[in-house]
């Protein structure tokens, strides 16, 4: 009876099964994290869009961001991400990608701080989109993305 074998002595079949289960757990964790990130980025984009809209329609100044940060932190004390600085990034995100199609674009799949890096370091929208595409394609970390941007910015133009 194999149930009485000491731990770790169940054979190769068990080892293969365990390896497969570990891979499935990792894939599920990655899918869950990706899904959470996409929802969070979409929420941030929507908040940014609404801030822009309300500032335009109702003439609200930048002070509304500080008040909104205070109120959101009070309503969700266990959540991070509602600082005035982050709310300004949300507004900048909505300015950079104003169309509702944003949620279908590669940029919406990037982690939040990758998007903040793009907003800080790349002013041209076409270039931002290019970097977003390449980041997804190659799985660049934020450090690699920053290096790619800075390296490209420091390149000398080719001689004619």
Primary descriptors:
160 residues; mainly alpha
Kindly describe this structure:
Residues 20-152 form the YhcG N-terminal domain. This is YhcG N-terminal domain-containing protein. InterPro entries: PD-DEXK-like_domain, YhcG_N. By secondary structure, this protein is an all-alpha fold. It has a domain at 105-160. It contains six helices and no strands. It has helices at residues 12-58, 63-75, 84-96, 112-121, 125-138, 142-153. α1 (12-58) crosses α3 and α4 packs parallel to α6 (142-153). The longest helix is centred in the first third of the chain and has 47 residues, at 12-58. The N and C termini lie far apart (79 Å).
Give the helices and strands, then pairings.
Blueprint: H1 12-58, H2 63-75, H3 84-96, H4 112-121, H5 125-138, H6 142-153
């Amino acid at each position: 009876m194999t149930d009485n074998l000491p731990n770790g002595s169940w054979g190769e079949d068990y080892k293969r099964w365990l390896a497969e289960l570990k891979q499935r757990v990792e894939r599920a964790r990655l899918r869950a994290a990706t899904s959470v990130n996409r929802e969070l980025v979409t929420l941030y984009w929507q908040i940014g869009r609404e801030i822009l809209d309300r500032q335009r329609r109702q003439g609200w100044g930048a002070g509304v961001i500080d008040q909104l940060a205070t109120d959101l932190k009070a309503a969700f004390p266990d959540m991070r991400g509602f600082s005035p600085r982050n709310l300004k990034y949300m507004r900048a995100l909505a300015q950079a990608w104003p169309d509702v199609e944003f949620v279908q674009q590669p940029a919406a799949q990037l982690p939040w701080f990758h998007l903040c890096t793009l907003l800080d370091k790349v002013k041209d929208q076409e270039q931002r989109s290019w970097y977003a595409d390449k980041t997804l394609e190659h799985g660049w970390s934020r450090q690699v993305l920053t290096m790619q941007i800075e390296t490209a910015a420091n390149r000398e133009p080719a001689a004619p």
